[in-house]
What we know:
The chain is of the alpha/beta class. It is 49% helix and 20% strand. The chain has helices spanning 2-12, 15-36, 73-83, 86-104, 121-124, 129-140, 160-172, 189-192, 204-208, 214-229, 242-250, 267-273, and strands at residues 40-49, 54-65, 69-71, 114-118, 147-152, 176-182, 199-202, 233-236, 255-256, 265-266. An eight-stranded mixed β-barrel has the order 1-2-4-5-6-7-8-9, surrounded by four helices. Helix 7 links the parallel strand 5 and strand 6 (176-182). The longest helix is centred in the first third of the chain and has 22 residues, at 15-36. One magnesium ion is lined by residues 180-181.
Amino acid sequence: DAKDAGRNTMRFYNPVMQTKVNHQSQMEAALRRALEGDNLQLHLQPQFDEGHKVFAMEALLRWQDPDMGWVSPADFIPVAESSGQIVPLGEWVMQKACQLLAGWQHHAAMKELILAVNISARQFYHPHFVEHIQSCIAHTGIDPHYLELEITESLLIDDLENTINKMNLLRGMGIRFSLDDFGTGYASLGYLKRLPLSSLKIDQTFVRDLLSDPNDEAIVSTIVALGKSLELKVIAEGVETLEQEERLKALKCQAFQGYYFGRPAPAEHWLETL
Length: 274
Ligand code: C2E
Ligand code: MG
Ligand code: MG
Ligand code: MG
């Protein structure tokens, strides 16, 4: 009846929903400008081994919009994934990453460093993904053995055969893979041994409460044991304190990334620091 129709109409104009839609399309338009302009940057966060030596850097995208200011990847990556803009954004990231690697590979102190790049599922499945990486490698002349792709378990949900084939193709070019945010997704343990992975990254949610939550401690030691039996490096993400590092070491974790070791910063910062 009219009352119900009225209610439905009200629901249609729900201001919260409207705000979300506006936010999404505003963000998409701003991202389009960012891709055309000069507002994107890569920051790098180091990964450390047991002896506090840096062995890798993770590239993290940073975006400063003229109107919105700094926008967090946690906010714009999901928008870019749903709009498809993650493909050109990801290509921008890959080009920059390969340029950085090319610079490092001419630099005595940096040439053994791995550069890790985050890859969304939608990028990975794009038909030109492999081709684009090949052309970045060719243009910059980098040794692809130092390029690592961070993927998440979400990639493994559908079409596993296709995923494994594509990963093997890239691995055959020398490229490494790590499984990011490990422990939060749905990867079955059976899949893991079929993937050409080099490392597992323990999700930061398990590190955060490690000192107070025995469940997290159990999860961390399980992941470490799993990594050991599959011969993968295990990296703890989100390490913020010395106490967390010590506990992680006691649990036999051998690699670390987090604010305690170093915050994400522009490449030039690390060039001076290392
Ligand atoms: P991620 O790949 O798991 O990256 C780690 C995130 O944790 C980064 O957030 C990093 O700044 C943050 N982090 C590092 N150490 C600590 C710590 O000790 N404590 C806490 N609380 N946080 C820490 P960021 O840079 O905001 O990126 C968020 C997510 O956005 C990334 O998670 C990744 O999934 C995605 N992302 C970032 N850059 C890119 C990109 O170039 N391409 C794609 N596809 N995704 C990206
Ligand atoms: Mg990552
Ligand atoms: Mg992560
Ligand atoms: Mg993440």
